[in-house]
Amino acid sequence: MTSFLSGAHGFSFKDLNVINAAPPAGDPLNGPIPDLASQIAPGALHDSAERCDAPKCHPETRVAVQGEIYSWIVHGDSDPAQKMVKIRWVTGPAGTGKSAIMGSVADTCKRDGVLVVAFFFSASASPDRRRKTALIPTLAYQLAQRLPGLKDSVSQAIQNDPLLFKKNLHVQMESLILTPLRQVTVESKQPGVVLVDGVDECEVEQYAGSHASPRAGESIERTKDEDQLEILEVLRDAALDPAFPFRIVIASRPERVFREFFNNESHKSWFAPPPRSGREVQPQRRHPFVPPSEVQ
Fold this sequence. Notes:
The protein contains eight helices and five strands. It is an alpha/beta fold and 296 residues long. Strands 2-3-4-1-5 form a five-stranded parallel sheet, sandwiched between helices. Helix 7 links the parallel strand 3 and strand 4 (247-252). Helix 6 (169-182) packs parallel to helix 7.
């Protein structure tokens, strides 16, 4: 190789150190964690550039529901029968400020040092925010960033199964989040929350031949309800796992799949009513998807 000093003269060097700039083995620019980062939806993070114009609650509005959500995240439920319930639902028609509430709660948690990871679905945003594919990798990436002890276990899971990102959500949750959590010590008293907003805006992920029909060569298309239910079920299963110390808040419109899933006395929810003059979002209890005037 020709030296860039070839032919030069009149130079002298003192205390010259030659540094090898080649990336060492295990360099952070290569390996499983960057592989994980390539599978996430960056725009779905609560503080992403893509969400810079996302609505936020005015400091003096929606105080009641924000306060209840935050108090539940940090202190749990005052009802002894609800102490072990770690998943809640924020619901209301379109335009009632659900995303604003979730964004403001995320900001408050971050400000107060409460661990928060989030995924904001949006049918009008980048493609990876419209599908379920990036959900678990995005949550796992945030947890690995906030709990560095998880990185080795997450990296090992990706190395053990190069096709992990093609597996179903339950397998991804087990491999990327639950198993790593079992292998590290996470302070169970440390408050933390997973916020998943706009699940009703998650569009269906179609797979060729995913459902066999009675007629050969035909297939039955998946529905968005099936994908949305898969998301709900995998989050519920995580919340029930003893290794998972965090609370989960899900926000969506009160569509049928969500009403049926949350129509259970063990799940308390918050209802976001249509905006009216000076009216704040108020928490609903037994009938989370019915406006207060219609609760019997």
